[in-house]
Fold NitT/TauT family transport system ATP-binding protein.
Amino acid sequence: MDTYAIEADSVTKVYLNRQDEVHALKPISFRIHPGEFVSLVGPSGCGKSTVLSLMAGLIRPSSGCLRIFGKEVTAPSNRVSYMLQQDCLLDWRTVEDNITLGLEFRGRKNRQTSHDARQLLELLGLRHTLKLFPSQLSGGMRQRVALVRTLAVEPDLLLLDEPFSAVDYQTKLHLEKLLTDGLKIREMTALLVTHDLEEALSLSDRILVMGGQPGEIRRTLEVPEELRSADPLTARGMPSFRPLFNELWKEMESHDKTVD
C-alpha cells in the first residue's frame, strides 16, 4: 500500500550554464497523501514550475530524493499526467484523435478506453466536436478537450501548471468543477501551480506557499473542511473564504517580489 503519493526529501535544483550556476531551489521537503489536492503558490521565479518538472521526471534533482508512490523519480511515469496552460492540441488531428493521444502513447488505446474518453467528452458538453479540428474550437473548448485527454489515461497523479489561466472567468469556474469532480470520482492526487489565490483556496486541501530565489517552501496552509467539501464556486462565497484569502495575500505580500 502506498503511504504517500509524493515524498520530497531535501530536494534541490541547480541549473548549469557556461558562465554560472543558477540555484533554482533550496532544499525543500514535503509529503502529499494519495487523493489529496495540493497547490503551490508564490511569486514568479520562485521555482514552482521547477517542482512540477521534477515531479514529472522531466529533470533530475541536483540533490535530495523525490519519490512518487514510493518509487524514486528517475524518468517520466505512466502514473503521472501533466497539464499545461497551453492546451497543446495537435491541429492536424480531430478532437476524437486528440483525446486518445495519451492512451496511444501508453499503449492503452482500445475500444473500451476510447469509448470512455468519448463519454468523458460528452460529460463536458463537447460530444458534437468529435470530428472537428482544434482550429474550429474556442479557447475554452480547447482547454476542455485538453482536460479530457489528461483524465482519459486515468493517472494516479495529476500535475497542473496554470491550466485555466488563459480562459475567461466563467469558463475557469466550470473547468474547476469538472476537474474536482473528475478527481474525486477517480480518487486521483493533484498538485497545482497557480498565481490565482482564489483558485488555490477553492480547490485545495492544502496550500504550500513558496518564495525566494532560490525557491523554498515558507508556509503550509491547511484549508478548512467546509471549503474543501464545497464546489469551487460555492467555496468562494462562504464566510470563511475571504479572511483566508486575505491571510494568504498578506503572506505573499510579505515576501520580496521576484521576476522570471
In short: The mean pLDDT is 88. Residues 1-79+156-260 form a domain with the Rossmann fold fold (CATH 3.40.50.300). Strands lie at 6-16, 21-32, 37-41, 63-68, 71-72, 80-83, 157-161, 189-193, 206-211, 216-222. The chain has two domains: 1-79+156-260, 89-154.
